[in-house]
């Protein structure tokens, strides 16, 4: 009888342990499934927003470009033609920016290709010699928010260089490291003193805020009369 009770207790304990492990496994699977469903919902919402923006704003910008071309043909005054052409160019830049943002939202944005393409477009528009180089290989997953932040940093740095530094040459380097992506912009312009407050200029503050939000870093090497070399680094998951 004692052996029978011991055997029965062993069976009961075994069943309880098995059921507990099965419950833990089921709970883990449910949690993972909930995470997958949340990620899927986010992706679907991004795709929905991308479609709406493309169909709405994209169509409006395309219509604006077509109308500006028509007005250019009708205009007699050269000054009016120039204004309309500038309006058309702004609309084309806006639609290109919209297309790029939509690619980021759909998570199929190639950062290296996007940076190289924008550098070429920027050089053609400003008539500044801008050199681009890429090194390293992406070994992790680059979050869409990180890719977007890096691209916005590129836009801001190039814009600031063209507006304020009066450079003769600009270098853009994109390096994929083992744990981070490094974007560097170097020019041979007027330079500046990073330690000197510049009222009304928030570019450096914005860079540091972006880096802090991503868990990255900003390195600024600049001196008056010696150009500027700014590197923005962001982690790779």
Summarize the structure.
The chain has 237 residues and is of the alpha+beta class.
What is the element layout, followed by pairings?
Blueprint (H helix, E strand, L loop, with lengths): L1 H73 L3 H28 L5 H16 L3 E7 L7 H22 L4 E7 L3 E8 L15 H12 L2 E6 L5 E8 L2
Parallel strand pairs: 1-2
Antiparallel strand pairs: 2-3, 3-5, 4-5
Helix pairs in contact: 1-2, 3-4, 4-5
Description of the molecule:
This protein has 237 residues and is α+β, with helices and mostly antiparallel strands. 64% of the residues lie in helices and 15% in strands. The protein is built from five helices and five strands; from the N terminus they run αααβαββαββ. It has helices at 2-74, 78-105, 111-126, 144-165, 203-214, and strands spanning 130-136, 170-176, 180-187, 217-222, 228-235. Strands 1-2-3-5-4 form a five-stranded mixed sheet, covered by helices on one side. α3 (111-126) runs parallel beside α4 and α4 (144-165) packs antiparallel against α5 (203-214). The protein starts with a helix and ends with a strand.
